[in-house]
Amino acid sequence: MDRKNETSTDFILLGLFPWFKHPYLLIIIILLIYTIAFYGNSILILLIWLDSHLHTPMYFLLSQLSLIDLAYISSTVPKIAANYFTGKKNISYFACATQLFFFLTLGLAECILLTLMAYDRYVAVCNPLKYTVLMNPKVCLQMAAATWIGGALAALVHTIYPMNFPICGSREINHYFCEMPAILRMSCMDISAYEMVKFLSTIVFLLVPFILILTSYTLIFLTVVRMNSCKGRSKALATCSSHLTVVSLYFGQAIFIYMTPTSSHTPEQDQIGTVLGTIVTPMLNPLIYSLRNREVVGALRKCVGRCCN
Length: 309
Description:
- By secondary structure, the chain is mostly helical.
- The chain has helices at residues 23-50, 57-74, 77-86, 93-126, 131-134, 137-163, 180-184, 192-225, 230-258, 267-291, 294-308, and strands at 11-13, 90-91, 172-173.
- It is globular, with a radius of gyration of 21 Å.
C-alpha cells in the first residue's frame, strides 16, 4: 500500500471482508449491485416525477425513499471501488467524519420516513375520507423536511462525539467505510457513557418508530379484515406488504448493530449487517415496490412505449 499521502490523522480502511480470498469477485458483485440499485432507484424517481397518476402522497414519500437509498449506497460503494482499483486504503479525518455524518443522516432519515409511510398507509386504509385533508401537499412537504432535518441533526451529534474520542495504537478501521461501531473500537477511553447515549438514541430513532409502524399495521390489518370488498382488501394488502418487507429488512439489521453494545458482536458481523442495510437493501427496495405495484409497472410500460414511438 502506498503511504506517501498518509498523515498521522489518516485512518486506514481494511476494506470489505478483508479475509475473503477472491476480492476481484467481491468487487464485481458489489459494482453489479450498485448498478442495479442506481438505475432502479433513478427510474422509480423519474417515473413518479413524470407520471401524473403517481402524483400522490404515497408515491411522493416513495420517491423520497428512493432518493435516500440512492444517496445511501453512493456514500460507500464508490469509495470501496476507488480503494480497490487504486490500492490506497487511507481516508483523511475530515473525509471519515463526512462519510460518517452522511451515512448516519441517511440511515436516520430512512427510519423516520418509513414511519411516516406507515402513517400514510394507516390514514389511507383506516380513514380514507380524511386522507386528502390529512395528507395534503403541504403536509407531505413538511414530512419530507422533517425526515431530512431530523436525520441530519441527530447524525451531527453522533458524528462529533465518536470522532473526538482519543485513539490509541493503530488507526486501522476494520470496515469498508467509517462506521460508528468500528470507530468506537479504536478508542482508548471509557465509552460506556456514550454507549448509553447511543442506546437511548436508538430507542428514540429505531425502537419507537418500529413500535409505531407495528401499531399502524395492526390497525390496518384489523380494518382490512372487516372490509367487504375482496378487491379493496387485496389492494390494501399489496401496498402494505411491500412496505412491511422493506421495514423488516431495514430495522432487522439496524437494531442488531445499534441496539447492542459494540463489544457484543464482531467486526465481521458488523460488516454483514451493514452490507445488508446499505448495499443490498437499496437494490431490493425499488424491485419490491415496482414488481408488486401495478401502477408503477403501468407507468413504466407507458414510458417505454413513448420512448419506442
